[in-house]
């Protein structure tokens, strides 16, 4: 156990962010560099090492949280890193991007602020990189088996690293020009600087994983031919089809999916553009969608110099404390102020877009909306609440509906889909096609990064067992497992 009285003597303290006026002028991560280490050992000491650590249930990876909290409290950073990597291939990703369902399930959170598990996690892994504790782990011998992984997001990378370390020869295929999937082009630099991806890729290369960029399976290579070339295939292509908004005026110029807008801003940081082809500079920006992707659009618009930023959400504003119908240890829907929201803009809840209005050149100029409310379980418009707001750039951040089928991958493999339109799989993450497996959002549907990594690790076990007849790789989840909710 860490500090037996830590939760009584130490209050919750989180990472400090840089001043808004400073950070909106650059694309660096919003947190003050080095601000966690002076406080993190005491924060780790708030962990009670519960008899039943529900944080394990909140985390699909089954992270050994009390163990690495104890090591962090004692400042044994090497041991903490070992325990952290025992269940998580990429803790620097989850430590920055995961919404921390483990903290929602923290036993201390029943009647006090939860342990800052996410901050402890990122402190351990950053310290491990700085001290050289993160090194390549190549296999002792090769199996002679080959595996193709389609997609280089967190699920694909996790599956690839596990299978490479098991001795298989793995090649990762990515249709974009760089490895990382949504981590690379969907997550803004101010949330996670891409150096964290780059050094993991170099680690994986040193372990033996091969990477093939700018190759889209189904377009550049026929999926059936790929299957014949490899002993097994893992589809980790994500759920990349954006949910659209079919209202009058949708065809106007200046209305874009979030995943059309965000990657271009990231490409500027990669050096591909001097200025992004789609920019918020000097424009009234409206972001439709109240989730994390919407917040990413808000923060990006601030840094590009938007005249104003308004974020719309069709649902009512969540409360700031748990509702009775979302009891501990479930993950509650709470009002969340992200770093992007701290930087300005307006958030409007319980509204629905009715149509867009443009100018004579076909550019969007206004968004018309109406207030909505739930009646008898149905969403209804409130008469007399219609109004319009300026909108010269609109980003649609309303989530994703499934994996891409337009490129022919699903049809060429002959894959079966489930009732939600995701690629169907069995208990070993295997599809109906022999030797073809699926991991991540392509099989689960839109989800969190921590679930993607868990899926990649679990699918790797299924592949390893298929190739060798048995496997010692861990499988933290089943395909049917879901988040801890009511």
From TrEMBL:
Coiled coil (UniProt feature): none
Keywords: Amino-acid biosynthesis, Glutamate biosynthesis, Oxidoreductase
Ranges for domain Dihydroprymidine dehydrogenase: 39-131
SUPFAM superfamilies: alpha-helical ferredoxin, Nucleotide-binding domain
Biological pathway: Amino-acid biosynthesis
Keyword Amino-acid biosynthesis: yes
Alphabetical list of InterPro entries matching this protein: DPD_II, FAD/NAD-bd_sf, FAD/NAD-binding_dom, Glut_synth_ssu1, Glutamate_Synthase, Helical_ferredxn
Residue stretches making up the FAD/NAD(P)-binding domain: 146-456
Pfam families: Fer4_20 (PF14691), Pyr_redox_2 (PF07992)
Domain of life of the organism encoding this protein: Bacteria
PANTHER family noted in UniProt: GLUTAMATE SYNTHASE [NADPH] SMALL CHAIN
Identification of the protein by name: Glutamate synthase subunit beta
